[in-house]
Write a structure and sequence with these properties.
- The structure is a homodimer.
- The first copy, chain A, has about 525 residues and is an alpha/beta fold.
- Chain A has three domains: about 160 residues, Thiamin diphosphate (ThDP)-binding fold, Pyr/PP domains (Rossmann fold); about 130 residues, TPP-binding domain (Rossmann fold), CATH 3.40.50.1220; about 180 residues, Thiamin diphosphate (ThDP)-binding fold, Pyr/PP domains (Rossmann fold).
- Chain A contains 21 helices and 18 strands.
- In chain A, the strands form three sheets. In chain A, strands 9-14-13-15-16-18-17 form a seven-stranded mixed sheet, with helices on both faces. In chain A, strands 2-1-3-4-6-5 form a six-stranded parallel sheet, sandwiched between helices. In chain A, strands 10-8-7-11-12 form a five-stranded parallel sheet.
- In chain A, helix 8 packs across helix 11, helix 9 packs parallel to helix 11 and helix 12 packs parallel to helix 21.
Chain lengths: ~525, ~525
């Protein structure tokens, strides 16, 4: 059995049975080994940013890693932007990066590069496979690393000769480190703070935003008067009718700081102290008010849900009677197709157990508000701010959850970074409906250009660099070019009809909205 | 004057007056400063791989660096694959990578990353700007580094507060180090080797492949009997009627080794000792025959043209009478639209001073043979093997050479990595005609899958990972979706008509060829 087969068999044995890939020559033995291990599902993408973003979407929804297969240094770097986002989401992910045969590196062939150096800044665990004897164990360790709470990026560099050479066969799974318990003394201390009657805020992210965490946090808030909020762009937020809802912090730093200005005690639950997304001249980066005390109930690696439940007990919060979102839907919109109409329509029509992937940016900003009383669903955000995540994330979420509708909210500018994902959606007939908010501008940057305080206001040449209307993009043509059926409704009613059709018919759809 | 203005003014003073960009919030002051320095041409791309590939194409044709503007770590990594190719081409290039404000880094905001660590493996010169006092000088040094022979990748990381803060104004240009002279003793030694009558090969790349280098090498070859050849994928090859032509080494290692098997003396001119592109089980990586002696007439950083001319004198090569390619064109093809028909048509119709960008891969492999007697032109190859270079390279070459037709040969699989380049071509109305060889397969990988020697041959699942026909890509739709006029001729005559039309009408065109 060669190294590639040992590797894939080990992965499958460890529960990693999906691999998103864009392989090259140095990965051909890995590709060939797929026929020997049919338990491994392989999914091809035309660009590596789709591969890694899909692994992120898969990991967030499956709560276990997908593997990626990338071709040498350049294939890795093409995927790193979405590895960055995955890392910020604490998504478990295992990147397998092919490299030249060990003895070939010395020739510095055209595709040679410092793969280790390129992978290091974006990897929590990194190893270059050294032998066929060890490759199975390397794989098992890589999976354990990826699964170590709160979820990590593991990167295994696989020289071609280790892949094609003899191996010692697959290795046994290694149990990942158990999620750490939050400290009891800390829970007690925070309970006292909350009972003090002073203004407190619980800030949640990650694992804490699943149903049990939301319930416990809401119980604490209702008992103690503490505000419950979550980061602006959480990795995965369970929400909708029947669940307690938490508001996300504002993206704009001045508004976010305003939200926290009266908070005397800030309790971090699976997250870290909030800072402005960007720095702006003369504005503070730290969003925490002066004098506010900051506590960590649970780090991202700790068991935030258990900590919240213990804290709820400690403050004497009742187990029942907490407020949940009532089921309520807006009416279907009529008239012009505005961003608000799109949001309203989604609120009116989102099916139960949908997964919403949100890279809607400026035009999509209010969509969460329209959907708060829709049937229960998951909402995935762009955690790391690297644009071009949405379509790949939706791809991976759909692979992870075949029975659920995925709705992908995309800005037109954002969509173009990894537009190739549409092809993988068509190839796999994934149940993803992509909604393009086409304002034909990098609109967020127009806002940011004002906010950074350019003297005299931006000139024509600056504004031109944020203008993507010259020429207009035609997303219906782009989608059809990649095998995805698409439409461009000319009003709110037509949008509703297109969206209803997409929710009824399985498979990929794209709806371009000129807003 | 703020740092961004100092930076841009310094660049313009140093002769860097084109900037390809995909900016974000942390680069807004740079963008705003464009209005203050109208001498800087700015060109927007929808994806960073287009930005860096365009800078490569520009640098290869303009013989001076373009700047790029990239947004933080993820924007940089999106561009690194084509930086890799540029580095392998020794293209002068200056990357400006925005970063968070210096004081903001400590908060590890969502988009924070180790920009320096990510840039280092792909940069020959790397600096993070530290102050407004130094930013002008940093820029001047970066340009000098980029222009240092044979051409380098310079990366300047620009924290947002350095960009928006006060500066000391622009700095004076710094002269790059002069191209080193090749060693006289080496020239003498090589002259003796060539006069020995033993079998010798001159292997050229880079600067040596310009007209003067080709002439000198051909004179040497004709006088001494030495074979003259060049690397498989040179950065820029001047060729066509009236110029001496040199054959490129074969891509397939076994054939390349066969070419060199009788060579007793291998003379490197602006390149390094040849190795197989990839390693294959049981096949040698080193293409040099055992016992062959290897000499370096000129390193890539040295003046290869002067060295060749001195060597030609030293071996007593006549100054005139060397063979040049006669002007000859094939007839226009008729019948089915095969790869050969496309190549023949290009040979028949390529206009004088065209720039051919070649990422045609498997189907395009013979196009150079059909065009050897076409009017004089430049041919640019994918030097680093990172796929997704062609369309961006063509974009940059067209910006550098507004009076010349650019013909971009693209594989369908390759085109999809950076398909967003079509939009920049449309936006700038660049005179690029893209020819897509659509075989609906990663055909080169099918060949490589056989060559790497998979036991029992590849299975259905492996072959499926190299199949991009499910669904078929429609490049006419994709091109129109980005504002580029496109057609899909159904035979050789129709292709000729479409190509003639494109050669007549300025602006971007795309022709999809089902081959």
């Amino acid at each position: 059995m060669n190294g590639a087969q040992s590797l894939i068999r080990t992965l499958v044995g460890c529960g990693v049975d999906v691999c998103f890939m864009n392989p090259g020559t140095s990965e051909m033995h890995f590709v060939a080994a797929l026929d020997a291990v049919p338990e491994m599902r392989s999914s091809l993408a035309l660009f590596e940013g789709v591969v890694t973003g899909a692994a992120d979407g898969y990991g967030r929804m499956a709560d276990k890693p997908a593997a990626t297969l990338l071709h040498l240094g350049p294939g890795l770097t093409n995927g790193l932007a979405n590895v960055h986002n995955a890392r910020r989401a604490f998504t478990p992910m295992l990147n397998i990066v092919g490299d030249h045969a060990t003895y070939h590196k010395v020739y510095d062939a055209p595709l040679n590069s410092d793969v280790d150096g390129l992978a290091r800044p974006m990897s929590d665990w990194l190893r270059t496979a050294q032998s066929g004897t060890a490759i199975g164990h390397d794989a098992a360790e890589a999976v354990a690393a990826a699964r170590t709470a709160p979820g990590q990026i593991a990167t295994l560099i696989l020289p071609a000769d280790i892949s094609w050479g003899e191996s010692s066969g697959p290795a046994q799974p290694i149990a990942p480190a158990a999620r750490k318990k939050a400290d009891d003394a800390t829970i007690k201390q925070i309970a006292e703070v909350l009972r003090s009657g002073q203004k407190a805020t619980l800030l949640l992210n990650g694992y804490a935003l699943r149903e049990r965490g939301l319930i416990a946090a809401t119980r604490i808030g209702e008992k103690t008067g503490a505000r419950v909020t979550c980061d602006t762009f959480p990795s995965r937020l369970e929400r909708g009718a029947g669940l307690p809802s938490v508001a996300r912090m504002n993206y704009f730093a001045e508004l976010a700081a305003d939200e926290l200005k009266d908070t005397q005690h800030l309790i971090l639950v699976g997250t870290k102290s909030p800072a402005a997304f960007f720095a702006y001249p003369g504005k503070p980066s730290d969003l925490v008010a002066p004098g506010c005390k900051v506590y960590t109930l649970a780090t991202p690696a700790e068991d935030a849900i258990e900590a919240l439940e213990h804290l709820a007990e400690a403050v004497g919060a009742p187990k029942t009677g907490y407020r949940v979102e009532p089921a309520r839907r807006s009416d279907k919109p009529t008239g012009a197709l505005t961003s608000a109409a799109v949001g309203t329509a989604i609120g009116a029509l989102l099916p139960e157990h949908a997964i919403v992937v949100d890279e809607g940016n400026t035009e999509g900003i209010f969509t969460p508000y329209y959907t708060v009383g829709a049937p229960r669903h998951d909402w995935l955000f762009n955690t790391g701010g690297s644009i071009g995540l949405g379509l790949p994330l939706a791809t991976g979420a759909a692979v992870a959850c075949p029975g659920r509708k995925v709705v992908c909210l995309e800005g037109d500018g954002s969509a173009m970074y990894t537009i190739q994902a549409l092809w993988t959606m068509a190839r796999e007939q994934l149940d993803v409906t992509t909604i393009i908010f086409a304002n034909r501008s990098y609109k967020i940057l127009n806002i940011e250009l004002m906010r950074v305080g350019v003297e005299g206001g931006p000139g024509a040449r600056a504004r031109d660099m944020l203008d993507i209307s010259r020429p207009d993009l035609d997303f219906v043509a782009l989608a059809r070019g990649m095998g995805v059926s698409a439409s461009r409704p000319d009003g709110a009613e037509a949008f509703c009809a297109a969206f209803e059709h997409a929710m009824r018919e399985p498979g990929p759809h794209l709806i371009e909205c000129l807003v």
